[in-house]
Design a protein that fits this description.
There is one protein chain. The chain has about 400 residues and is of the alpha/beta class. It is built from 13 helices and twelve strands. The chain has two domains: about 140 residues, Aspartate Aminotransferase, domain 1 (Alpha-Beta Complex), CATH 3.90.1150.10; about 220 residues, Type I PLP-dependent aspartate aminotransferase-like (Major domain) (Aspartate Aminotransferase, domain 2). The radius of gyration is 21 Å and the shape is globular. Helix 4 runs parallel beside helix 10 and helix 5 packs across helix 6. The strands form two sheets. A seven-stranded mixed beta sheet has the order 2-8-7-6-5-3-4, with helices on both faces. Strand 3, helix 6 and strand 4 form a beta-alpha-beta unit. GO terms for molecular function: transaminase activity.
């Protein structure tokens, strides 16, 4: 017996991009000490007051089936938060609570694409994007951005692929590049979506991690609220990665259909976890700033370290918890560089190629270890690159 093509074909016949990460974990399991700068996992854990509220809710009995669309108070709080930040009128009926942002991404593509429809996404991309689209039985088509544009997508490139497509997935602040899309970039994207009747799926899970410029939700742009689905999550903003709480914000009729999907798939999110998410959101922006502060601080450390050398170039680090480093001066691919760095110095970074072809010759560094260790690892990486720099 064989599994369905939908399942067996999720990776599209290629690597899932996690080879360096998996090698690092094998080394750790064998007893080698590895400095991990790979995945977007906070070096702090979920704050004790949030866990205490989760415990209170569980002990208080909120352990049965919870409302599938989400606990009413949490939907209301997400709606308030989105409306306050974007200026777009948002009601609880515009919100579906999901088991994390990943489930929201999958659901959004199920909602917007029929089997075989073309779903566009941008390269570089978060590693699960193409597989998520295939899992929804759509056809993933990537549009390359350019290093010389600091990975800001060009509307003309999107328009060239837009004919016949049903959706476009974007992510700002961006993983893996750390770039925040400018208003001009987003206006161009919105124009293409309107002209080609595209759904826009906007992954905004890093909206609290903006170091330069401002986060603009494309749902707030003219004519976009009725064709945009926004994906949000508690994972990055509140260090609740393992709690699996996310949401989709969109038109009421689509949210209503997505509630039907949730009823027949996940059947919602545990009530005591939703209660803890509500408590966390109610702590306000100051708490979110506290969670984000280490990454802003480490981004400043990176600027100081990288200023003293010429082998590694930093892609503008405007948001999120990552740095994208251009190591093309070494003459190495991102994958070769990452494997060699791991072997020589037991420092694990992600190859740019793990996120698509546009970031070839780059590596992504997650700013997810303590400051002094982060600075030391980045200095070693720079010296390693300097020693392998191609002759002029």
């Amino acid at each position: 017996m064989q599994a369905s093509q939908r399942i067996s074909g999720i990776l599209g016949g290629g690597s899932d991009g996690w080879d360096v990460f998996n090698k690092a974990r094998e080394m750790i399991a064998a007893g080698t000490r590895v400095t991990e700068l790979t995945i977007g996992e906070h070096d702090i854990r979920t704050a004790a007051p949030i866990l205490q509220d989760m415990h209170r809710a569980a002990m208080g009995g909120h352990t049965g089936y919870a409302s599938v669309p989400g606990v009413a108070a949490l939907r209301q709080e997400v709606a308030r938060r989105v409306q306050d930040r974007t200026g777009v009128p948002t009601a609880p009926e515009n919100v579906l609570i999901t088991p994390g942002g990943q489930a929201a991404l999958f659901s959004a593509h199920v909602a917007t694409c029929n089997a075989g429809d073309t779903a566009l996404y941008l390269d570089p991309f978060y590693a699960t994007y193409p597989g998520t689209i295939r899992g929804a039985s759509a056809k993933p088509v990537c549009i390359q951005t350019r290093a010389e544009d600091a990975f800001q997508p060009r509307a003309s490139d999107i328009a060239a692929q837009a004919k016949g497509a049903k959706s476009l997935l974007i992510n700002s602040p961006n993983n893996p590049t750390g770039v925040v899309y400018s208003r001009a970039t987003l206006e161009g994207i919105a124009q293409v979506c309107r002209e080609h009747d595209l759904w826009l799926i906007s992954d905004e899970v890093y909206d609290t991690q903006v170091w330069e410029g401002a986060h603009i939700s494309p749902r707030a742009l003219e004519g976009m609220a009725e064709r945009t689905l926004v994906v949000g999550s508690m994972s990055k903003s509140h260090a609740m990665t393992g709690s699996r709480v996310g949401w989709i914000v969109g038109p009421r009729d689509v949210i209503s259909d997505l509630i039907n999907l949730a009823t027949h798939t996940t059947y919602g999110v545990p009530g005591f976890i939703q209660d803890a998410a509500l408590f966390a959101l109610q702590q306000g922006e100051s708490f979110e700033e506290e969670i984000a502060a280490p990454f802003k601080r480490r981004r400043d450390i990176a600027h100081r370290v990288l200023a003293g050398q010429n082998a590694v170039t930093l892609v503008p680090a405007q948001g999120a918890m990552y740095l994208m480093l251009d190591i093309r001066n070494t003459g190495m691919s991102g994958e070769d560089f990452a494997f060699a760095l791991l072997e020589a110095h037991q420092i694990a970074v992600m190859p740019g190629e793990s996120f698509g072809r546009a970031a070839a010759g780059h590596v992504r560094v997650a700013m997810t270890i303590e400051d002094s260790a982060f600075e030391a690892a980045l200095k070693v990486l720079c010296v390693f690159a300097q020693n392998r720099q191609s002759p002029a």
